[in-house]
Amino acid sequence: MLPSGCSAVDTISANQEIKDGKATLVSKGEMFELGFFSPGKSKNRYLGIWYKKISYGTVVWVANRETAIADTSGLSNLPDWETW
Asked: Within its chain, how far is the Cα of 81 from the centroid?
């Protein structure tokens, strides 16, 4: 689900951003990936976690299920907490 030209990291620091279409967060064992996605043929964008290797496109968690983003302007960051 990672668009071409994107980068993936396995850690994110306080106030570091994940921008739609620019980066994803991949678990250290590369089992899960967090980022923005569009399900099926939908143009709406969601922030979610999906299986990276087991099953392409199998989403396991969605942050904004009820409030989709209508374009690729999505941005996610962590408040000033410790590194995840």
From this structure: 19
Q: Which domains does the chain have, with CATH numbers?
A: 7-77 (2.90.10)
Give the neighbor-by-neighbor strand order of the sheet with 59-62: 7-9, 23-26, 32-37, 46-51, 59-62
**pTM of the full structure:** 0.69
Joined tokens for residue 61: 């968690």
Within 1-84, strands assigned E span 7-9, 17-19, 23-26, 32-37, 46-51, 59-62, 75-77
Instruction: List, for residues 12-35, the tens digit of each pLDDT value.
Output: 666 677 777 777 888 888 888 888
Rounded average pLDDT over 59-80: 74
